Amino acid sequence: MTLIGETSGAPSGGAAGGVAGDLIKDGTDASFMADVIEASKTQPVIVDFWATWCGPCRQLGPALEKAVTAAKGAVKLVKIDIDRNPSFAGQLRVQSIPAVFAFHEGRPIDGFMGALPESQVKAFVERLAKAGGGGASPVDELLEIARESLEVNDLGGAAQAYAQILQHDPENPKALGGLAKLYMQNGDAERARELLDMAPADAKDPDLDSVRAALHLAEQAAPSAEVQQFEHRLVQNSDDHEARFALAQALAGAGDLDQAADHLLHIIERDRDWNDQAARQQLLKVFEAAGPMSDLAKTGRRRLSAILFS
Length: 310
Prior knowledge:
single chain; alpha/beta; Serine Threonine Protein Phosphatase 5, Tetratricopeptide repeat; 5 strands; redox-active center; disulfide bond; transport; Co-chaperone YbbN; Thioredoxin_domain
């Protein structure tokens, strides 16, 4: 199964992305009407007039780009070098740079001159985003597309939506977790691990936790060549909990979480305290790998409760 197409590969960062066109782009006098005036009729657009020789411009630019990126598609940024494109800077009576103008519905509504502290830049962008109506961002729309695709088992469609998000927002936890989980389901643990490594250290998302647990199970699993040996031992003695536990580990590591859970529940039913409750602890890891809202986790927890409280 191809998840995100032959042309996509692993998602990469960058200001431009596939979420809603280029959120951060270089503009010109020739493109001003399309990039700013027309574009601002659908969402707010910030125009940053700058020049290569301007020190404060080099200070302000990264702060603007960071704030616009954090707005996740609610605002666009167009950067215009006034040395090469003096026309609209002149019409707006720009006398010093950096000069920033915010456009909404085809007209300027806010702005400032000079380099502001990052906190003030962030507040400026957030204020402009709210002025745009506060509708769902392109990122939220793509996450919804991914969710709907998964509901109809369109894994390729979900992967495309996640990849588009990551082209714009490379550290988006939901997109990283969702895409990593798809790679795990496709048997590509290496790509899944690469996506986990892209996530911020403090990122919290159920799919990220699920993939981390699945990778941990894979590392614990016995070699597949030994599986038949465990199965043979169980034929000889169905209460060989050591063999059943090892078999469950191997199955979980291979991604067969349902059968792994069945074997672990069997051990718990026969001897819930076996090996310091190792089967129960392993079962909880299986639930985490499947996802807390998965059918396996929901059904498995009911079965576990029935055993423990019978």
